[in-house]
Each structure stands twice: as structure tokens, then as C-alpha cells.
């Protein structure tokens, strides 16, 4: 993917015809050994950011971090970022496509044209100096399940459920968006049983109430 940055809601509303900004997060499902991603930058001031972008000092500008399966990264608006080759993630994000492209590796389309870059907007919205997105991770363990809280933020909350036997749960939010990322199991609700193979995605609506999951599986779960 191109190296990019997203605006916050205020900037997008003023400059993108009332659109939303974009905050997102990534759970690394799989990647090559030694894989990296771009997560932030090394400019200490906005003037330095402008100088490095205009001179094409991409190696000096971009902050690369080593990643591995199971890592979680919170990517708030204003963060320069890019996934690199061979990386599979589960992304939770604001519902927005507002993107400012910083660098596209000088790739060309079939007509020989490079994709448009958005230097002026990127300079406006990039957080300088870079600030790591926080992850207020906590762990709750009880019979049958370990619940890892990755982030509870303004736009979404994201958790990982690690289930090793039958566990009784309840749905107390406007919805729960669930993805089975490892193992398999089954969900029981209101007298019905639903299989949960690896790769299954499902929504538990507000009126779900109590339910149970049985099996050996891991799920990424989010709500607003």
C-alpha cells in the first residue's frame, strides 16, 4: 500500500465537504519473518517534515517497525503509516476513505502515470513530532476465556477473546463485530447452535443478550 496519512474529523469536515476523518487499528494476523511496517516519522518539526518530503528523503523520514503475528497497533489520525508486502491484518477503522498519499514508490499505471500525491494536505494533518498511538491493553482471565483489551477509544473498542472451553457471555453494546482468527468452535443462542470456523465473521446485535461459545478459538471483537 502507499505511504499515507488520514485527517481528523475537524480537518475532513472543513476541507473534504463534510467527510469524516479516519482513525484505525491493525491486528497482525500473519506476516513474513522479519516483516516491517511504516508507523510514524522522524521529523522533529513541521519545517523538517516539509524539507524531508520535498527532497524525497523517504528513508530518513519514515519510521519502520518490526512486526510479528499477534501484534496490535493503534493508528490515530495524523499518523503516517503503511503496511508492507506479505502482511495480513484485521483492520478496525472509522467508516471513511479520506486518505492523503505521501509516497507511492514511484509506481506507474498502464498509461505510465504516477498516482497523485497530496503533500499539502499531508503536511497539514500529520502529527509532528510523531506520537505512538496508545494501547491501553489489559487482561481479564476467568473460567474458559481470557479477554485482552487492546484499545478503548473514541471511535471503537477492540478486544481479543481467547476461549479454551465453554464460556457464558453477554452482549451489552449496540453491536459486537466478531472475527474468528484461530481455531474453531460453536456459538449457542436461544436454542440454536452456529459453527464458528476459522475465518468466520459475524455480528451480534444489541438484543442478543446471553450466549455461549464452546471450543478452542480466538476472536477479535469490536464495538463502538
Number of helices: 4
Could you say which overall geometry the principal axes of the C-alpha atoms support? Answer: elongated
β-strand percent reads over 45%
Q: Which sequence of SSEs, written as H and E, runs from N to C?
A: EHEEHHEEEEEHEEEEEEEE
Question: SS-based structural class?
Answer: mainly beta
Mean pLDDT: 96
CATH architecture of the largest domain: Sandwich
CATH class of the largest domain: Mainly Beta
CATH topology of the largest domain: Jelly Rolls
The CATH homologous superfamily name of the largest domain equals Jelly Rolls
Count of discrete domains = 2
Q: Between the first and last Cα atoms, what is the distance in angstroms? A: 27 Å
Backbone CA Rg? 20 Å
Percent helix range: 10-25%
Contiguous low-pLDDT stretches (5 residues minimum) are none
Number of strands: 16
Main sheet characteristics: 8 strands, antiparallel
Amino acid at each position: 500500500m502507499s505511504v499515507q496519512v488520514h485527517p481528523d474529523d475537524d480537518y475532513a469536515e472543513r476541507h473534504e465537504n463534510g467527510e469524516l476523518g479516519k482513525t484505525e487499528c491493525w491486528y497482525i494476523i500473519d506476516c513474513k519473518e522479519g516483516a516491517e511496517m511504516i508507523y510514524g516519522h522522524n521529523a522533529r518539526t513541521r519545517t523538517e517534515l516539509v524539507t524531508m518530503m520535498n527532497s524525497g528523503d523517504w528513508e530518513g523520514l519514515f519510521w519502520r517497525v518490526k512486526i510479528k503475528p499477534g501484534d496490535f497497533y493503534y493508528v490515530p489520525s495524523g499518523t503516517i503509516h503503511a503496511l508492507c508486502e506479505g502482511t495480513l491484518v484485521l483492520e478496525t477503522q472509522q467508516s471513511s476513505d479520506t486518505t492523503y498519499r505521501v509516497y507511492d514508490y514511484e509506481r506507474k499505471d498502464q498509461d505510465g502515470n504516477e498516482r497523485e500525491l497530496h503533500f499539502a494536505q499531508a503536511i497539514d494533518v500529520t502529527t509532528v513530532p510523531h506520537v505512538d498511538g496508545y494501547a491501553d491493553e489489559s487482561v481479564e482471565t476467568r473460567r474458559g476465556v481470557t479477554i485482552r483489551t487492546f484499545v478503548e477509544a473514541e471511535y471503537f473498542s477492540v478486544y481479543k477473546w481467547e476461549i479454551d472451553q465453554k464460556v457464558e457471555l453477554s452482549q451489552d453494546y449496540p453491536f459486537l463485530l466478531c472475527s474468528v482468527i484461530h481455531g474453531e468452535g460453536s456459538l449457542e443462542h436461544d436454542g440454536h447452535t452456529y459453527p464458528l470456523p476459522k475465518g468466520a465473521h459475524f455480528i451480534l446485535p444489541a438484543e442478543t443478550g446471553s450466549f455461549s461459545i464452546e471450543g478452542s478459538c480466538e476472536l477479535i471483537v469490536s464495538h463502538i
